[in-house]
Specification:
Elements lengths: L2 H11 L4 E2 L7 H10 L4 E5 L5 H11 L4 E5 L4 H10 L15
């Protein structure tokens, strides 16, 4: 996704719920419920184990959904999020090594 398309989708979204899902088997069900409720975006926090699986399952089921990673603290988490299909990463602070 190019930067302009990302910005347009982010602007259109208006709200991005933060997801902390302990039961990764519920990822697709949650994504479906969000979409049915008119929300086509989610930030999956790395505060819960399996966040990369949740991202992968959500983006696999709904490739056009704006799914990203939150509470990204390390380069490894960032890499895992991107590999899982995250379209953005959010960190609670600045670490110049995480790009």
């Amino acid at each position: 996704m190019d930067m302009k398309a990302f910005q347009d989708q982010l602007e259109f979204t208006g709200i991005i719920p933060v997801i902390k899902l302990e039961d990764t088997s519920k990822a697709v069900e949650l994504a479906k419920a969000l979409r049915e409720g008119g929300i086509n975006a989610a930030e999956v926090t790395f505060r819960a184990a399996g966040a990369d699986k949740v991202i992968s399952d959500m983006t696999g089921a709904f490739p056009d959904m704006l799914v990203g990673a939150g509470t990204v603290l390390t380069i490894e988490q960032c890499d895992a999020a991107i590999a899982a299909g995250a379209k953005f990463c959010v960190a609670p602070g600045l670490n110049a090594h995480v790009r």
